Amino acid sequence: MSVTSGKTRPSLTQEILSHLGLANKTAAWGTLGTLRTFLSFSVDKDVQRLLRAIAGQGVDCSAIMGVLTNRTREQRQLICRAFQERTQQDLLKSLQAALSGNLERIVIALLQSAAQFDAQELRTALKNSGPAEDVALEILATRSASHLQECLMVYKQSKSGRRRERGWQGSPPSLALPTDFQVEAEEDIKSETSDILQELLLALAKGVRDRYSGIIDYNLVEQDVQALKQAEAPSTEGTWVLIFTQRNLEHLIRVFDQYQRCTGHELEKTVQNRFHGDAQAALLSLASVIKNTPLYFADKLHQALQVDKLPCQELEE
To answer: Rounded to an integer, what distance in angstroms lies between the CA atom of residue 134 and that of residue 130?
Structure first.
């Protein structure tokens, strides 16, 4: 049995803000970060502001952050190109030379493209000595297929680029960088993770999750529920990986609801009883993304906002 769902949803940003109580509030322009395009945007004025901020005896970090944190990522990319054209200098390198510490890291993140930022964060997560599932799963499970493909391509290029850097003079030739990421992604995931966490990350990196067609197949929902009930025994991890990484989110929401009706408890309770360590954390994170992606991000943002605000001088330490 299949039915069509005709629901019209608000944007992801609106849903995230609604969970934080910000969606319906009015605020002075700029207090909501880069969620909105800066309407009075002038690339020439912004370039001049940044030049003045780094050209004086002391670096005006407030002016730098005032520009970069009140522009969308697309507007910041326009500023980077205009800065290069007008000064023959790279804005990122100029700011790196003027800044240090946490503030330098923030500025680097703000000036990267979305794909560059995700690629760097994914690499850091996989190469870190701590568990990789949190950031890696967030990136691999929540990005669109097209964005993920671009991110993974940048991931491969940046890694290969560092190995060839000594052989370059001037700008590196584009042909020196391979365009196929998947082999490198699989190598890093296989070398840095293991067991079901490795299987989940490899499956998510392939980006083969079903697209929601607007039709719910309730026969398949019931099949998946029964498969998960039977997969509570050992050596059935593959069933969890397949369902969690290949079914579309609308389908999985129905699977979660039906599973609770059939068993009397949420699927997350089974995950907690069935799995431990990285596997448990990974599946619970995926369950949060599946059930309510905006709430998942709202929780992440709320946790980040608990960190004490630091003045500019402390950010540079």
So the answer is: 10
The pair of structure tokens assigned to 49 is 């502001």
118-154 residue pLDDT tens: 998 898 888 875 555 688 999 999 998 889 999 998 8
φ/ψ bin of 214: left (φ > 0), alpha (ψ from -120 to 50), beta (otherwise): left
Q: Hey, what are 80's tokens?
A: 């980077």
Are 79 and 43 spatial neighbours (Cβ–Cβ below 8 Å)? yes
**How far apart are the C-alpha atoms of 63 and 55, rounded to whole Å?**
12
CA distance 188 to 111: 26
Distance CA 225, CA 157 (A): 41
Contact status, residue 279 vs residue 128, Cβ threshold 8 Å: no
Number of neighbours of residue 273 by Cβ within 10 angstroms: 11
Q: What is this structure's pTM?
A: 0.74
Q: How many CB atoms lie within 10 A of CB 214?
A: 12
Which of helix, strand or coil describes residue 24? Answer: coil
Which of the 8 DSSP states describes residue 1?
-
Q: CB count, 10 Å around CB of 193?
A: 21
Report d(CA 67, CA 79) in Å as an integer: 10
